[in-house]
């Protein structure tokens, strides 16, 4: 038991260290004052009934050289790429809104660091208890595990669901036609949207579960280990040790939630208050997604 406790504490300290690094390095997309006129093809994916707010926000942009392609599904968006004429491709969920400065800031970042792809982690418009229990989870997991500023430098894998992407069009087409000559992974950067891109409506339970499973690359063993240390570990500490001993772990958890909340522009008091329920929801969604993944693999193997 004592070995398990030590492992839980080490895991907690490591996650806290990653969170501190993210908080101090502030991996946000900056608001840059430079103006550009390169053509951008915006590929909107999702039900047409949900994209009105997004289209209005794009029309209100301070960036004019934009063409919009609308796809009902991810598969359909791939077929539309051949019609895109922009120098850059921006893939965005139909349930999003953008603010002024986004496209100029993305282009500046791409040009300044010679990037081929920027993966944006959007902000979230959280409304209602269900939304607060599910939507902050993927942000919590990613910012607790992945030092975002080091993704580009050390070629760390991105753990983020790739729903908001800004591509150099030439690199995107090369990647899809010549995968063996795919662009240098170090030319990819993962950044927080810094209020310039917001998801206005939350995912369903199944969608939230799939997004969380994607973070672990559908690796069931990694998910089991994560849940063991994240959920069961603190419960063992609380059950077996005095408050004086567990005050440090509780303090690290509290500080982590506060820092992640500020990074993602969420209310830290609500996230701290709901943390136990959010972790229970996280465990449920990961278990649900793991079961679905196992059944899917079993079905494919039989086929």
Structure description:
The protein is α/β, with parallel strands linked by helices and 303 residues long. The radius of gyration is 20 Å and the shape is globular. It has helices at residues 2-25, 52-59, 74-80, 102-113, 129-134, 136-145, 149-154, 169-177, 205-215, 220-240, 243-263, 268-273, 275-302, and strands at 40-45, 66-71, 88-93, 96-98, 117-121, 123-124, 165-168, 188-192, 197-199. The mean pLDDT is 85. Helix 1 packs across helix 10. A six-stranded mixed sheet has the order 2-1-3-7-5-8. The protein has a three-stranded mixed sheet with strand order 4-9-6. The chain starts with a helix and ends with a helix. It folds into two domains: 2-24 and 206-294; 27-203, Spore Coat Polysaccharide Biosynthesis Protein SpsA, Chain A, CATH 3.90.550.10.
